[in-house]
Write a structure and sequence with these properties.
Strand order of the largest sheet: 7-6-5-8-9-11-10
Number of strands: 11
Strand content: 15-25%
Shape: globular
Number of helices: 12
Bound molecules: S-adenosylmethionine
Length: 334
């Protein structure tokens, strides 16, 4: 007998005749009450993206890449031919690898012809449901997600697949000291703290007493309360305080997930705080797809666009923007 096959409709977005990466098909932040019961997630997604000003986004249009895109291929050719000259090769071999990479890499020209994967994956409802069914989540995190879904601002919580990726980053780095900028009810802090070994410390910065009250209960339930040090108040001051207390290069990982207009300031402080080889991870870099829509000009969206452009050109880090959840950027301090 033939197996029953299910067709998945992959619906890439098109703009100016070209297929675009359709990740913004993801709708609002997850606020479902159960990872197994993905139906409510899917319902959210069918309703489309609800923007903060109450309008609806049906999908993103990718903004042409920033800066001097049209010149990139020519520049890339020039860099390649320079790199093959014996003088440059000699200089490069005496330089740290990261600095050579920094000198050569530029932003990708989104308008150039390939080679691209000509059918980038559209995160359809079915595929997202599949992804959730293949994502691990601790029982306490699941309970926290249920409780948070009833609260104001529930969509601020990181998605389960982001929590899993944050935990993996903590494990890969064997992070002993972590700072989180923006804790809310505690999902990401617990996901990371559970991945730390005994004796590790996560400094959780937030200015909402109401949200932290929930977080505290779940830190205890998850058994990570001894690993978490709460820093109540303005996170800019808390981060500066940590720099004074522990000094530069003293943290393994920093996670930024608070007020978007201060991202650049958090990033600069965390770049001092985190050790070379450590990571700064930044959430909401795709901002519900709004960063790619040129008609959206509000201050938060503009701030994230400027931040993303800055990091793309920042040679102090090795950098990758990952379209998971609302977009996570990984910046490894060189
Ligand atoms: C997106 S939520 C964080 C979500 C959290 N990472 C999670 O996984 O549930 C942003 C949080 O940042 C906090 N926040 C915003 N601006 C802040 C500031 N200047 N200082 C401290 N906390 C701030 C808010 O109170 C809110 O709880």
């Amino acid at each position: 007998m033939l197996p029953r096959l299910k067709l998945i409709a992959i619906r890439p977005y098109r703009s100016r005749g070209r297929f675009l990466h359709p990740h913004g098909a993801r709708s609002r932040r997850r606020s479902s009450t159960d990872c197994d019961d993905v139906a409510s997630f899917i319902d959210d997604r069918r309703r489309g993206v609800e923007t903060r000003d109450g309008t609806r986004d049906d999908g993103p249009r990718r903004r042409a890449a920033t800066t001097t895109m049209s010149t990139v291929p020519a520049r890339a050719r020039a860099v390649a031919s320079r790199a093959s000259s014996p003088r440059v090769a000699r200089r490069a071999s005496s330089r740290p690898r990261a600095r050579v990479a920094a000198a050569r890499a530029t932003a990708v020209d989104a308008d150039a012809t390939g080679p691209w994967n000509t059918a980038p994956l559209a995160l359809t409802d079915d595929i997202y449901a599949y992804l959730l069914r293949n994502t691990r989540e601790d029982a306490v995190l699941r309970a926290l997600r249920e409780e948070t879904s009833e609260l104001r601002g529930a969509r601020m919580q990181v998605a389960p697949e982001q929590g899993a990726l944050l935990a993996l980053a903590v494990e890969l780095l064997d992070a002993r000291r972590v700072v989180e900028i923006g804790t809310y009810t505690g999902y990401s802090s617990i996901a990371m703290a559970l991945a730390m070994r005994e004796g590790g410390r996560l400094y959780a910065c937030d200015r909402s007493e109401e949200a932290l009250a929930v977080a505290r209960r779940y830190w205890t339930l998850a058994g990570v309360d001894e690993r978490i040090v709460e820093k109540f108040g303005d996170a800019k001051e808390s981060a500066r305080g940590l720099l004074e207390e522990f000094g530069e290069n003293s943290f393994d990982l920093g996670f930024i997930d608070a007020d978007k207009r201060a991202y650049r300031e958090y990033y600069e402080t965390l770049l001092r705080l985190v050790r070379p080889g450590g990571l700064i991870i930044v959430d909401n870099v795709l901002w519900y797809g709004k960063v790619a829509d040129e008609t959206v000009m509000d201050k938060q969206t503009e701030a994230i666009r400027e931040f993303n452009e800055f990091v793309t050109n920042d040679a102090r880090v090795t950098y990758s923007m990952v379209p998971v959840g609302d977009g996570l950027s990984f910046c490894r301090k060189r």
